[in-house]
Fold each of these.
Amino acid sequence: MHPPAGSDPRPRAPGDWDVDAFRAAGHELIDWAARYFEGIEGRPVLARVRPGEIRRSLPATPPEQPEAWKELLADLEQRIEPGVTHWNHPGFMAYFGITGSAPGILGELASAVFNTNGMLWRTNPASTELEQVVLGWLLEMCDLPRDWFGQIVDLGSTSAVLALAAAREACPLLEAREDGLSLHGTPRLRLYTSVEAHSSVEKAAILLGLGRAGVRKIEVDDRFRMRPEALATAIEEDREEGWTPFAVCATIGTTSTTSVDPVDALAAICRREKLWLHVDAAYAGNAAVAPEFRHHFRGCSEADSYYFNPHKWLFVPIDCSVFFTRHPDTLRRAFQLIPDYLKTSETDAINFMDYGFQLGRRFRSIKLWWVIRAFGVDGIRERIRHACTLAQAFAARVDAEPRLERMAPAEFSVVCFRAVWPDLGPDETDAANEELLERINRSGEVFLSPTRVRGAFTLRLAIGNLRTDQRHVDRVWELLQAGIDG
Ligand SMILES: Cc1ncc(COP(=O)(O)O)c(C=O)c1O
């Protein structure tokens, strides 16, 4: 029974605080967040701490007695902030830039307020249904097949496991779910992906019992795209040697260079060979919102599973990966296991726990819903275009500068490049570029990350943060020039 309104002199909010204390603390936290954003450019983007420094600055044992909110907030500012690498800094151009946008941050807060576990439809009908609606919006926004089944998971690594588990389940010669993979006579499964694919594909294979030997990496062409004819040959060779090919993982937007596998050609091979086609579009999948990038996605509508990460380039705070498949029944067959304590009477509702290995489910759709609504699809498109325009202009500058060399095509918002010195050999050039990158990053104004392209040490400028603008990219250019000049 609900107590009559006003009967409790100190209504409770979470954490055993009364509602007024919660409200006041919440306002202070938002004020802190606003201050953080206002001053973010004054902070070094890459944390300037030594390993162990933050840990040593904190008490090793928890407080026995309650501490005041003011102390909690003060410690966040004084002890934690100095040890944070600021991914929300406009100078953050490392890895894949991400953004905690205002509506996304508030969406995280709203989801924490409800604090639900949407494992079953009935444990939060709104979470299940909002997720279905927003994923339908994403399919529409990216011009992907509207009838795909989708769900939000934490990370791309989880999406890879779901995809390959479903692919394994679809393999007709195997009862991996019931028998495992160690039964005598179990086929040796083989998965194909390019040498440029993300490590999460191989990790998923390790987790699913295929082992690293179960992953065959296919060579790429001069634009770092999987070569379809090399794939076809590998499948043929493997069949002759007794392997059971079962899946191909293509990538749109590889991690090092953002290269794009020819999904249409790979789809034709998968159709012919009856293999599951999974597409990892973790980063670049977000660009499909803008029609001028859709040519990169040709063939994706034929995928058996597909995912991308709105937490990478759709301004949704980490974590938020969206996984789609055209075969929800296969996915459910791989994972559905309903103990007595989770049985429900709704037969016409989706229980997301049936479609993955995780039971619990955060209410992640709110942040995605709010970001799409607050920016509008057109607003999102414009921001993706802006990032690509900045990157393309930087690539053109690199191309025009004889002391720099571009290492890969810039398909989206990432540019791979390095400096060249006429009298240095390959090893010395690598070392000098490594030092150049360190020097740029020591400025504290920007942060770039490295990769290797055809074995050569390469600098990588990745634009994905909403706050990154021309002047930040200009600053990279100035630091680069100064660094080359020594
Ligand atoms: C192409 C690609 N796939 C998968 C991942 C893994 O994503 P997550 O960190 O969400 O697991 C990444 C991360 O950068 C990626 O670039």
Note: The mean pLDDT is 95.
Amino acid sequence: MEQSTLTVVMYHYVRTAPRNPFPALKSMDTDAFVQQVTDLATRYEMATMDSTLAFLEGEYHPRRPLCLLTFDDGVQDHYREVGPVLAERGIQGLFFLVTGCMEEGVVAAVHKNHFLTAGLGFPEWRRRFFRRARTCGLAMPVVDPGAAARTYPWDTAKVAEFKYAFNFELPAIERDAIVDELFIEEFGDESAFARQLYLSWEEARQMQCDGMVLGGHTHRHQPLASLNAAELRSDLNECRRILDLRLRPQPFTPFSYPYGKRDSFTGEAVRRLRELNFCCAFSTEVGRNQAGSDRYALQRVDCKQAA
Ligand SMILES: [Zn+2]
């Protein structure tokens, strides 16, 4: 008998085009999402947190392959567009929150990059970033094009190389000083933008009442491998503390690594997640999972590949 698999699909922005004030933002249209969920539900048994963990432990043998839906970054789309579609069909989604963004009204650098790209157009955004970096004496790193393409397979080479430099290579403090200034110039008050972009805690709790499971996606959305031991501890502790404080109690709380490729997290990060009682962690390495797969390096497929 063929061994059963668990396919975990990963989503970010899901929006209805006419209601999206950023038409250039890379997102999945809500209609396409509904169609995809309908298709997946005919081909797979839709998994829950419980059935996923039982399957990975080898205690649950589904007759059809399992499919689990996961949503990163805790954006409002998940409350407005995704939650109702899943609740109506009795499907459980896992939603990963960036606690600092919700708690402190901060827009994560990775999202500032998305919205500046969508708002200004990529060439103009890059030009402005480079110009400001030059004035500040910040040298742009030379990026390995292979690493950039592997991390951002859905972007053009230029966009992938910029994102790679932006998210992994540039020193975070200097980068953020530049991007914060440009972001405020373009979009005004950051905390007002954050309130519109991310879920509120009230909305997150409502999603739990509708059967969804919420999890951690760090406090600051930095690549965990880039943090020193004290920073790693403090970020993950804070993420867990705020989830416990703000959410309804859940039997299991999962985690998703920001960026999520194998080199974006460390053994130390996994040890810390276990200590903090996160039940499993999802990477962005592409693949399907089987009984016995490492629960702290679960693989996923992007929604663009799941059709
Ligand atoms: Zn993320």
Note: Residues 72-73, 217, 221, 258 surround zinc ion (CB under 6 Å).
Amino acid sequence: MDQAARLRELVREKESGARVLAVVSGKGGVGKTNLTVNLGLVLAKWGYKVLIFDADLGLGNVDILLGLVPRWDLRQVINGEKSLAEIIIRGPAGLQLIPGASGLQELADLDSFRQEKLLQELESLATRQDFVLLDAGAGISRKILSFALAAGEVLVVTTPEPTALTDAYGLIKILARLGTKNYLIVNRVASETEGREAAQRLQQAVRRFLHLDLPLLGFIAEDRAVGQAVHRQQPFVLSASGVKAALDVEAIARKLLGRAASESKAGSDFFQKLGRLFGRRKGDF
Ligand SMILES: Nc1ncnc2c1ncn2[C@@H]1O[C@H](COP(=O)(O)OP(=O)(O)OP(=O)(O)O)[C@@H](O)[C@H]1O
Ligand SMILES: [Mg+2]
């Protein structure tokens, strides 16, 4: 705990606003939402203020993993019925959540007044956080790339499967052009050796062909406790805190905290970029 407190101070000194992290993947179903929720909870348990923004357009399900039933979601915000602050729900350990909506696509069509209002509200909410985690979804759509760009720091999640690694490479190739700071997480590894080999393969390709560094944040073991936690709608870092996957997520959180926040381009910059994103039209990427 002492070490966590020291790291917390370090992060607070270096950053005035929140560190904004987008969780993305090339291939779907590799574990982004589980990572977002459990990483957010670990940080929240350690005393950080964490806000999760369910930005997986049309497929948001962070609330389900947390066992929460939001009364409102982004749809009401977009419709102008609710403010963003009004739809935020509190999860375990003080974690805060902006529940996603299948109507999120409509954000792109917001009139400029409402768009401005929403962004101002998000900005003011984020200044009170230490971390904002965006569960940004899979693939290389314009929206996902825009969230990654807006966040500045990107957690690329893959499994050791060749298909997932290939899709991760495809995504990183595009992120490389956007200049985001990318980190790698390999999920569902049978052993550390398998994880290390998969990470090295991807890191080597990224270094060789994209001339980029892809720091490894860690591995998460293939663990039955993850599926069980999903079924029970109780995140495994809380309901099964001693299991391998939970220890792995904690190690990732420590590594993330150890990475100087000054490397990132988080803070209010995020909202300027987000504003530009919603101002963009289809086909910009
Ligand atoms: N470390 C793990 N060990 C075992 N099973 C896992 C692990 N991580 C994820 N899973 C399984 O994979 C499923 C998909 O995970 P999750 O929903 O987090 O992926 P996702 O990347 O968010 O998917 P999508 O792209 O559809 O949003 C989970 O329901 C869980 O059963
Ligand atoms: Mg998901």
Note: The radius of gyration is 18 Å.
